[in-house]
Amino acid sequence: MLNKKQVAFCLDVFEEMFPDAECELNHRNAFDLLIAVVLSAQCTDALVNKVTKNLFQKYRTPEDYLAVPLEELQEDIRSIGLYRNKSKNIRKLCQTLIDKFDGEVPNTKKELESLAGVGRKTANVVASVAFDEPAIAVDTHVERVSKRLGICRWKDSVLEVEKTLMRKIPEERWSESHHRMIFFGRYHCKSQRPNCEQCKLLALCREGKKRMRKVSG
Questions:
Q1: Where does a domain end: 131, 158, 190?
Q2: Dist CA 166 CA 145 (whole Å)
Q3: Is 88 part of the annotated catalytic residue set?
Q4: What is the pLDDT of residue 217?
Q5: 80 domain residue, yes or no
Q6: Do 149 and 120 share a structural domain?
Q7: Is the same domain home to 124 and 154?
Q8: Per the domain annotation, does 149 fall within a domain?
């Protein structure tokens, strides 16, 4: 397991590689972001952005999503995985926004998690990106990078990964590190073909060293 000093070195490398990393989901406001993150579950940001280009022109408020039949909303997001469940959750969360939050997206993680289709990861993303609240959202990239590098244990749950990262990363670096780890995992330390040969973190990376031994052997 990497110690705090080693983790700090990793963060510096992430910053050097991806200084401008930020949320890649297109959105105009907190409400758009909330919808986009709900849609992004088990789906790429690129596909979500393709769908929301038209979706966000048609639907601008919670009321807009409730003004059409469920089937119409399903058809509008049909190309996205789990579109039936996501359509139902979007309508439920829109109703809750109207009933409990005056149609506005709440800015606390606890309130965000009370919305249909919004888990801890989604709440962290919205709180961080829309409201500048320090947060680390553990998606598939963050989890993979954390475990490959040895920041966390292979057996750790997503929640345990989040807690470990929060403990080992200074709070003022949580949000920026979250985005940079996503970029590192998405564009460099890929699931199938990680770029170990040209990685500045190879000397620290237990998984990278293991892979390189297999290649050289």
A1: 131
A2: 15
A3: no
A4: 62
A5: yes
A6: no
A7: no
A8: yes
Active site residue 12: no
Q: Which residue has the tokens 């005056």?
A: 102
Cα(60)–Cα(76) distance, integer angstroms:
14
Residue 216 is predicted with a pLDDT of 73
Q: pTM to 2 decimals?
A: 0.92
| Domain total of the chain | 2
User: Encoding tokens for residue 77?
Assistant: 């997001």
pLDDT tens track for 87-113: 999 999 999 999 999 999 999 999 999
- pLDDT under 70 in the chain at which residues? 217
User: Do 60 and 94 fall into the same domain?
Assistant: yes
pLDDT at 62: 98
Q: Are residues 97 and 79 in the same domain?
A: yes
**pLDDT at residue 214, as a whole number:** 84
Q: How far apart are CA 40 and CA 173, in angstroms?
A: 24
Q: Which is the catalytic residue, given 86, 139, 163, 200?
A: 139
Residue 174 token pair = 């949580």
The parent domain of residue 160 ranges over: 4-21+138-211
The first and second tokens of residue 39, run together, are 């849609």
* Residue that terminates a domain, selected from 131, 156, 173: 131
Which residue matches tokens 């940001």?
45
pLDDT at 195: 94
Mark whether 74 and 114 lie in a shared domain.
Answer: yes
How far apart are alpha carbons 40 and 86 in whole angstroms? 10
From the candidates 121, 155, 163, 190, give the one annotated as an active-site residue: 121
